[in-house]
UniProtKB/TrEMBL annotation, chain B:
Keywords for the protein's UniProt record, in alphabetical order: Cell membrane, Membrane, Transmembrane, Transmembrane helix, Transport
Span of domain ABC transmembrane type-1: 94-291
SUPFAM superfamilies in the record: MetI-like
Membrane-topology descriptor: Multi-pass membrane protein
InterPro entries linked to this entry: BPD_transp_1_N, MetI-like, MetI-like_sf
Location(s), subcellular: Cell membrane
Main localization (coarse): membrane
Protein name: ABC transporter permease
Originating species: Salinicola endophyticus
Signal peptide positions on this chain: none
Amino acid sequence: MPLLDVQDLRVDLPVEAGTLHAVRGIDLSVERGEMLCLVGESGCGKSMTSLALMGLLPRRAQLSAGRLDFAGESLTALSERRRGQLRGRRMAMIFQEPMTALNPAYTLGNQLCEAFLRHRLGNRRQARERAIELLERVGISAAAERLAQYPHQLSGGLRQRVMIAMALMCDPDLIIADEPTTALDVTIQAQILRLLRDLQQEMGTAVIFITHDLGVVARIADRVAVMYAGEVIETAPTQALYANPSHPYTRGLLSCIPAPGKTPPGSRLQAIPGVVPSLVGEVEGCAYRNRCPLVREGEVDAARCERTPELRRLTGDHQARCHYAEHRAATRVAQPEMSP
Amino acid sequence: MGTFIVRRLLVALGVALTISVVSFMLLHLSGDLATSIAGPEATAEQVAQIRVEYGLDRPIVSQYLDWLGGALQFDFGRSYYYQSTVIDLIVERMPITLTLGGLALGLAVCISIPLGVVAALKRDSWVDRLALLFAVVGQAMPSFWFGLTLIVVFAVTLKWLPAAGSGGLEHFILPAIALGYYATPAMMRLTRTGMLEVLESDYIRTARAKGLSTTSVIFKHALRNAIIPVVALAAVELGFMLGGSVVIESVFSLGGLGQLAWDAISRNDYPVVQAVVLIIALFYIVLTLLADVANAALDPRIRTR
């Protein structure tokens, strides 16, 4: 039984123009100790998905799910009280902005120990000891003295380490990390990624890592789910996804990453033309068809793309939401073109 | 924190000295003191005599230094009108003003902060609208009129409380309500805006993600940050109520500092005016200092800056 089993998760937000379907029926499953990367551009619903899993959606948002099971319990059936007991205890979250995600008015020690004490895992002394142990584990020196410091006295990278330690305080089964490295310098990014990966393997915590950067994914993920316009459009083990990207959007994302040593200097950076369709109101047919190179170049029957594709199993664990996932031309990753 | 307070104290001292100069000079700039003390029917000899008697013939700087030297020992001279020293007059009136101001501020804090928090939590609900109405009425209604209304309803019609005078605590209830209501709207709205802003912040989301109780999220994480500007405002409001309660004091015939100053101005009783101006300014300085210290205690970012 997977740790997290999500089927047909939907999140609707009322907006002025109607209803925004931020998440349009996604299926996800995360095994214990696994790292799943949720990839997509901004507005694809990945953050809404994570907030829905944590039960932190804005009050006006409406959630529905065919199944939303965590460790065998249905989250939708839980009382708010029971949900609060899981949150922070068995599922924790790391946010994107380390600069603002810590309360400026309290010491790190106070904020680190808070969840531990709230969930009655021990007394103050034990909480303090665990905080020191975890701060040291995430690579913060002079951990005991740091407990008396305030967030503004730390750099962004250090704060994100504190956030990671904070998420680990109660030894959760699942950590949702929402773009935890986006706001950091590139060198710090790599350190934090490595740290997360090491901790995940060492402690056997399952991680849902949310990012817009496919380059990050290759380094850390066991499995990848690519999201587009509120849907999962392709999911596969990391190796399989890179070896054989089957959705034109995944190939588009991959071709956008310049590879040092491979992408010739001076060549044009790739971009996917067009924009994401509006998710206000119903989306009919394939959500990607107005940007899809297969449609644009007439390689496929565009009429078929007017019908909404299902997420289909291609081989083993590899699924894609495209009528033409097996299209031969489709397996060719577009090479960056040389500038004239 | 120590250096922070010392630095603030030095600034406060500078401000206090400046105010002492200004309050001393203002009266001397408003015309010939000896003439106005002597009155319109005085002869030239009488005026000259008064000038010597009150030391007004000496250079202005030495007059100021004398006055300041006295003020530092709480000696503000004698009142021209009352047969008593200025400090005695002030000591007699001060408790009334302090009680009124303290009660009014206490009342304002006890109403505005809970109301602001509830209005923010129940944004756009009927509670929020009612709080807004309460604030708008409080801001629009002149305090003397509200004071008179309170007298008519609670003293004259219902006969629950005395209408005037300054005997026991019951005399302070109606004036404290009138003065406190005046200070409530701004603090209420500032609390509400602060809470709305803080509740949207990332660290509140973090707190919720930890599974903390709603009480802990609202009071420990949100209110603590939202309250910081309200504390500063409360100090200014108290300063205003101590110095500017003259209207309420006269409506309720409370003989406080405000009324003393008012009487002294209309009687050209300069030593009293100077002393009251200086003391009210000192109130402001002390309160601002306290607000700064309280802010630093609440916000660690200020302390270490």
